[in-house]
Design brief:
It comes from Aromatoleum petrolei. This is Pyridoxamine 5'-phosphate oxidase putative domain-containing protein. The protein is α+β, with helices and mostly antiparallel strands. It has four helices and eleven strands; from the N terminus they run ββαββββαβββααββ. Strands 4-3-7-8-11 form a five-stranded antiparallel sheet. Strand 5 and strand 6 form a beta hairpin. The longest helix has 18 residues. It is globular.
Length: about 180
């Protein structure tokens, strides 16, 4: 028996269910969000459902795809980080500018963490890939640098269990769950 990662409540110990959780993202989706140089928008909301948003500057996905982390500049993301700490809700949109291929992944157990070993290298690879992606559609490296510059400030990770994922590419499949959107 398998179950979605969303079937388990955020504070429920994994030992409560004997079912093996499944990730809503497959290996192709994981590669797309971690290596394709996609634009990353990170959203949350307050307890009163007021939205907050910030730009992500990279992403990490564990090999079984049951946990993802997005990196954000703390100073530029205060409202969002407060909302994540209060509600643990997160929605992340990954969009490839030249093709408009877009995925949205949601979680409801998000936590703010320090970067892990290797994350700074992931962020630098993301910057290079995103700069190359924007270069393909005519934006120079100065524009990209200004768009995703951390200004030397603190960068944190927001880790979460992907519990729902959707194809958000404009077109007839927009809004379909990823399991049915291939």
């Amino acid at each position: 028996m398998s179950t979605s990662a969303c079937d388990r409540m955020p504070d429920q110990p994994s030992s409560v269910s004997s079912a093996v959780p499944e990730s809503p993202i497959d290996a192709d989706h994981a590669a797309f969000i971690t290596t394709a140089g996609v634009s990353i928008s990170v959203g949350s909301s307050s307890a009163d459902l007021l939205p907050s948003i910030t730009r992500g500057i990279g992403c990490r996905v564990v090999p079984d795809r049951l946990r993802a982390s997005v990196f954000v500049v703390a100073e530029q993301s205060r409202d969002l980080l407060d909302d994540v700490r209060d509600t643990r809700r997160i929605a992340v949109v990954f969009s490839e500018p030249h093709s408009h291929r877009t995925l949205q992944i949601k979680g409801r157990d998000a936590v703010v963490e320090a970067l892990e070993a290797g994350d700074r290298d992931r962020i630098e690879r993301y910057r290079a890939a995103f700069s190359a992606e924007l270069g393909e559609i005519g934006f120079g490296p100065l524009f990209t640098h200004a768009l995703i510059d951390s200004g030397g400030g603190e960068v944190v990770a927001i880790a979460f269990t992907p519990c729902a994922a959707f194809d958000q590419t404009p077109g007839p499949r927009a809004g379909e769950p990823l399991a049915h959107a291939k």
